């Protein structure tokens, strides 16, 4: 399931789209996310030829390092005499990973904000040339080919439905399966120390500017002190080795907790798509996780809940009683 970013359509964008749907003065509208909060019109271009040929104007709107949407107006109209549009979703390979994720999760917001009834289809691409006239023809031919999909192609299509970007008419593709940022050496060292028992807690974060996994904290804490380590304004990943007793035995259980308090949209998405890869790094170092948790704030990290999940109460077995055999063995009763 894809998650909405919460970013909204500006009044200016809605007005431009509505006016252009009724009139023929604008061929394409370039849209970008501003201040992590709103979808704004960046630039428009006017038609110069037939609409199929005017796709050659689209690459002039695109930057190789910045993701963008383009609403492209055709000369076709619906029953209400409004123009029909293509939604072009452009996410270049060189743009930041977190931007790829935010634009992926905002596409639905854009469609619902302007009304999807006028959108014919969506085209995804990672190069500007994916959206020129030759790219549009290639995309259309692919759509009309109706050939059976391979298992890999089906998987990629499912990823697109989940809100992840897919290359369009060109040969390039861009997928966000989960973010595999490089890991700082102190993170690896701390995981090794956790496994060895030298520490029982470590906190992992993400450096969004340099796009890497970093160590934020490590040490030894009682379980009651662990929530105090959780920041209340940024997500984090936490590993905690809890030594405790259960049924008279000493047990060491490793918890992997993803805490995600209220914080900027980009940061939340960056952490959300990195949690599986952080877990994989721990697994590679031999850290076996016994319980995974996801919480919004430190108050949800409760010993009682953790114990119940690690050691659920055993179901009582019902005792069955055999019926006594009749004296003298089996007897037949005649009526």
From TrEMBL:
<keyword id="KW-0963">Cytoplasm</keyword>
<comment type="function">
    <text>Actin-binding protein involved in motile and morphological processes. Inhibits actin polymerization, likely by sequestering G-actin.</text>
</comment>
<feature type="domain" description="ADF-H">
    <location>
        <begin position="6"/>
        <end position="141"/>
    </location>
</feature>
<dbReference type="GO" id="GO:0051015">
    <property type="term" value="F:actin filament binding"/>
</dbReference>
<dbReference type="GO" id="GO:0003785">
    <property type="term" value="F:actin monomer binding"/>
</dbReference>
<comment type="subunit">
    <text>Interacts with G-actin; ADP-actin form.</text>
</comment>
<dbReference type="InterPro" id="IPR028458">
    <property type="entry name" value="Twinfilin"/>
</dbReference>
<dbReference type="InterPro" id="IPR029006">
    <property type="entry name" value="ADF-H/Gelsolin-like_dom_sf"/>
</dbReference>
<keyword id="KW-0677">Repeat</keyword>
<keyword id="KW-0009">Actin-binding</keyword>
<dbReference type="GO" id="GO:0005884">
    <property type="term" value="C:actin filament"/>
</dbReference>
<keyword id="KW-0206">Cytoskeleton</keyword>
<feature type="region of interest" description="Disordered">
    <location>
        <begin position="313"/>
        <end position="335"/>
    </location>
</feature>
<comment type="similarity">
    <text>Belongs to the actin-binding proteins ADF family. Twinfilin subfamily.</text>
</comment>
<dbReference type="GO" id="GO:0030042">
    <property type="term" value="P:actin filament depolymerization"/>
</dbReference>
<feature type="domain" description="ADF-H">
    <location>
        <begin position="178"/>
        <end position="311"/>
    </location>
</feature>
<dbReference type="InterPro" id="IPR002108">
    <property type="entry name" value="ADF-H"/>
</dbReference>
<dbReference type="Pfam" id="PF00241">
    <property type="entry name" value="Cofilin_ADF"/>
</dbReference>
<protein>
    <recommendedName>
        <fullName>Twinfilin</fullName>
    </recommendedName>
</protein>
<dbReference type="GO" id="GO:0051016">
    <property type="term" value="P:barbed-end actin filament capping"/>
</dbReference>
<dbReference type="GO" id="GO:0005938">
    <property type="term" value="C:cell cortex"/>
</dbReference>
């Amino acid at each position: 399931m894809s998650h909405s970013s919460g970013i909204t359509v500006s009044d200016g964008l809605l007005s431009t789209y509505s006016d252009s749907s009724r009139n023929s003065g604008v061929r394409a509208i370039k849209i970008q996310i501003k201040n992590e909060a709103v979808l704004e019109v960046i630039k428009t271009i006017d038609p110069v030829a037939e609409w199929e040929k005017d796709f050659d104007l689209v690459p002039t709107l695109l930057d190789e390092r910045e993701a963008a949407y383009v609403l492209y107006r055709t000369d076709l109209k619906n029953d209400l005499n409004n123009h029909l549009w293509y939604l072009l979703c452009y996410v270049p390979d060189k743009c930041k990973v977190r931007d790829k994720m935010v634009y992926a999760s905002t596409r639905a917001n854009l469609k619902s904000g302007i009304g999807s009834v006028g959108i014919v289809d969506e085209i995804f691409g990672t190069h500007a040339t994916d959206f020129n006239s030759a790219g549009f023809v290639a995309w259309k031919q692919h759509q009309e080919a109706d050939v059976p999909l391979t298992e890999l192609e089906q998987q990629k299509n499912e990823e697109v439905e989940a809100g992840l970007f897919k290359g369009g008419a060109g040969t390039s593709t861009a997928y966000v399966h989960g973010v595999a940022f490089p890991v700082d050496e102190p993170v690896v060292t701390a995981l090794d120390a956790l496994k060895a028992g030298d520490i029982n807690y470590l906190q992992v974060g993400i450096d969004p500017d340099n796009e890497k996994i970093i160590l934020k904290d490590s040490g030894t804490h009682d379980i009651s002190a662990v929530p105090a380590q959780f920041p209340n304004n940024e997500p984090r990943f936490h590993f905690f080795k809890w030594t405790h007793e259960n049924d008279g035995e000493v047990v060491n259980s490793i918890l992997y907790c993803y805490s995600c308090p209220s914080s900027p949209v980009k940061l939340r998405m960056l952490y959300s798509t990195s949690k599986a890869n952080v877990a994989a790094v721990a697994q590679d170092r031999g850290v076996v996780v016994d319980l995974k948790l996801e919480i919004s704030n430190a108050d949800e990290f409760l010993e009682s809940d953790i114990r119940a999940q690690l050691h659920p109460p055993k179901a009582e077995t019902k005792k069955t009683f055999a019926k006594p055999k009749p004296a003298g063995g089996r007897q037949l009763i005649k009526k």
